[in-house]
Amino acid sequence: MAHLKGLFFILLVCMVRCSPPEEPIQCSSSTTNCTITNSYGAFPDRSICRAGEVVYPTNEAELTAAVAKATMRKRKMKVATRYSHSIPKLVCPGGDDGLLISTRFLNRILGVDATAMTMTVESGVTLREVIDGAAKAGLALPYTPYWWGLTIGGLLATGAHGSSLWGVGSSVHDHVVGLRIVTPAASLAEGYAKVRLVMVGHPDMDAVKVSLGVLGVISQVTLKLQPLFKRSITNMGTSDSDLGNKAVGFGNEHEFADMTWYPSQRKVVYRMDDRISSNVSGNGRNNFIGFRSTSALTLAIVRSTEEGHEATNNPGGKCTDSKVIVSALMMDGYGLMNDGILFKGYPVVGYHNNLQSSGGCLDSLEDACLTVCPWDPRIKGEFFHQTTITIGLSKVQNFIQDVQKLRDIVPNAMCGLDLYNGILIRYVKASSAYLGKQEDGLDFDISYYRSKDPTAPRLHEDILEEVEQMALFKYGGLPHWGKNRNLAFDGVINKYGKIGEFLKVKQTYDPLGLFSSEWTDQVLGINGRASIIKEGCALEGLCICSEDLHCAPNKGYYCRSGKVYTDARVCTRLTNSH
């Protein structure tokens, strides 16, 4: 325990120099024979994503020319963003000759209309740049994801959101009032590419604003903003005994409410977060600890410690370490700072733009990788699965109570979650977007250990697999498009009532399917399935096990039923007999 206290202290203070994330696209020459990965360095199936070429347009005209040239050649295309944060293979064009269109240099704020309270940006602008640009004009985008390294185009394509049931809700795409999107055109007469303007009221808006990137390349986005305001945040930790009862109503009590749940410790932290008068004093800021630049040495030691617990089948070690980590996070206010420098206690009051999002590890200069984003694949650091599923409010109470029942059967099985700051629970409202949320719900964001060896089972693997399957199938949850393992996407499109309307727009915008890929065809139910059935496939979430071979019988893990959700099929460690 003492060594982790020391490591946490290092994590807090060793933030002087850092190395920015690596370019996700790597080419053998300057722009040809390329590969692309995500910011975590691996797709769920560990495949290598190749492309024949990458282009970096700097304006809409260059973007249109790139789409036209590729359309004329009937070349597959995919859009790549600056930091490439989607876990599934949304950026893979397919084949070795595909074209990657990077929005890295489509990064300008084109205009802010203070009277209309709108902002128009190119699609490669990061969330941080949107937040800062709006604030300079005395405006704010009210609800956003908590990580500011996402681009506007990327977060719209995957339906990214913050936490709120108020107003039109926390999904950024529901604050879009206009889009310009470049799509293929079938003939020379049309120039092989077409720029489409889609405004509020346009019949295609509900398809375009969450599209998985299969309609074309978003060029520009116009967002509806609000006058800049202040917020007051208080985190309150308490027992999780009544979480199931309280979770639904809490989102109506506080505009920016969320919850962080530590099931193994039977604790939940409620974030009481509301806008307040700008006359209230306070200059609070958010510098979330998990998004700060961190010493590569610290990260290596922490990772090695968890690998040691895994190798020695020591969940107790994870439980001990997680208590230290969670206690330290709570004492430090999770990175909130009252005066922009230190956390001195609650409430933390400040302007919205300084509290809504963070990502300090992107503020960096090149060095010898002394400090990095914690998940940077160039060093030995965090490597995890991320299961993020939204469950309808009417079903949330029963889901939480089922997870608690499972926790009570195997009390130390979820300690590993707390090492990744527990389960983040956010509120998200139903959207008119065809691929948006179908009903008001709670989004459960769960990160947990992933082995560098895809054939290695995890400690208490069956418990988290049961939670995952319970959320998806017993409670009909919707997986986040930019996260999750393959199994979450099998048949998922049947949960979307207007998928037919979306596919009609897709056929109109991209009749040749040049922006489609094997992955998006599987997810959208057009061709094939997302699961990959092979030996050991359940270990990485490529499949749900149906026989022992899908687990790791040679290492004592066999396919068995769930403990609470008995329809689940999970990889269970059996020590004596099976």
Topology readout:
Elements: H1 2-13, E1 25-27, E2 32-36, E3 49-55, H2 60-72, E4 77-80, E5 99-102, E6 109-113, E7 118-122, H3 127-136, E8 139-140, H4 152-157, E9 176-184, E10 193-199, H5 205-208, E11 217-224, E12 226-227, E13 230-239, H6 243-253, E14 258-262, E15 267-276, E16 285-286, E17 294-295, H7 296-311, H8 315-331, E18 336-337, E19 348-351, H9 352-355, E20 371-372, E21 384-392, H10 393-409, H11 415-418, E22 423-428, E23 441-449, H12 461-474, E24 478-479, H13 499-509, H14 518-523, E25 557-561, E26 569-573
Parallel strand pairs: 3-5, 4-5
Antiparallel strand pairs: 1-2, 2-3, 6-7, 7-11, 8-12, 9-10, 9-11, 13-15, 13-19, 14-15, 14-22, 16-18, 17-20, 21-23, 21-24, 22-23, 25-26
Helix pairs in contact: 6-10, 10-12
Descriptive notes:
Helix 6 runs antiparallel to helix 10 and helix 10 runs antiparallel to helix 12 (461-474). An 8-stranded antiparallel sheet has the order 19-13-15-14-22-23-21-24. The protein has a 5-stranded mixed sheet with strand order 1-2-3-5-4, with helices on one face. The chain contains 14 helices and 26 strands. The two termini are 36 Å apart. The chain has 4 domains: 19-102, Uridine Diphospho-n-acetylenolpyruvylglucosamine Reductase, domain 2, CATH 3.30.43.10; 109-228 and 496-523, Uridine Diphospho-n-acetylenolpyruvylglucosamine Reductase, domain 3 (2-Layer Sandwich), CATH 3.30.465.10; 230-338 and 371-490, 3-Layer(aba) Sandwich (Vanillyl-alcohol Oxidase, Chain A, domain 3), CATH 3.40.462; 537-573, no CATH class. It is globular. The chain has 578 residues and is an alpha+beta fold. Helices cover 25% and strands 23% of the residues. Strand 9 (176-184) and strand 10 (193-199) form a beta hairpin.
